[in-house]
Amino acid sequence: MGPGATADDDGRSDSATRVERRRRTTAGVRYRPPTRRFGATPRVDGEVIDAGMPTNEIARFILRTTDVAAATAFYDAVLGRHGDVVYPLHENAVARGARPHWLGCVDTPDPEGAAAAFLAAGGERLGPWPGGGMVVRDPGGALIAFGPVATPSVSGVDFHVLRYRDASEVPSLYTKVFGWSFGPDGVGFREMRWADRVAGTAAGIDATPGVHPQWLYFFGVDALAESVVMARGLGATCLPIATDPKGSRYVVGDDPQGAAFGLIER
């Protein structure tokens, strides 16, 4: 969560535990969606990219949670979908203090090579990715997976926010390995592009106390206010709806099991 919410493998989830702090620091300062967004399903000239063509983009999203049935029902009610798959959070991870969280996978033909580059730069190998590949903690501290993605995502993720330790300079590593581009360094968030598409933003965490390294995924919705009411009614913790200077409306929250998520109006 860029604006300070996503549960990482250490189980830290900011949107439930630091709501008052984030209310004092406006969400609009922490997260600025650009005017161009895109769905998670890769397309070229309006056509879905063949499933066998690696995209070098985050192309699959799984939820690891403590209550699969309840979490699935929550997202089905709020979004009409529940990501690409929902898995139980392993008991060993729970014992280490891990909290439910969303995990994205970069669709790459060489997960071992990608992981090797990240480990050489100071990342940490955490475990396997279902279907091949692996999960790592990148040198900036955020969780990410690398592996082949067999089918286009049905998750409806429209925006991706990366928060990282400033000293790690991890955006340059994503650029080197996957060809992503980032806006110039400076105060605030840097625009992140995959090929010719705006994919999200990235920002260091040093200037935002209480925010930890993380990837936060924003699900696109047609009626943001109604979706937030529904989410809160089902037990989610959501910040107030925020609007960026260009009119994009979004919200950050934790689902009833504690996994951080974002909603952004299409």
Number of helices: 8
| Uncertain residue ranges | 1-52
Instruction: Provide the helix percentage.
Output: 10-25%
CATH architecture: Roll
Structural class: alpha+beta
CATH homologous group name: 2,3-Dihydroxybiphenyl 1,2-Dioxygenase, domain 1
Element-level helix/strand string:
HHHEEEHEHEHEEEEHEEEEHEEEE
Globular, elongated, flat, extended or rod-shaped: what is the shape? globular
Q: Rg from C-alpha positions?
A: 17 Å
Number of strands: 17
Largest sheet: 9 strands, mixed
Roughly how many Å apart are the termini? 19 Å
Note the beta-strand portion. 25-35%
Count of individual domains: 1
Please give the oligomerization state of what you see. single chain
The CATH C-level name is Alpha Beta
CATH topology: 2,3-Dihydroxybiphenyl 1,2-Dioxygenase, domain 1
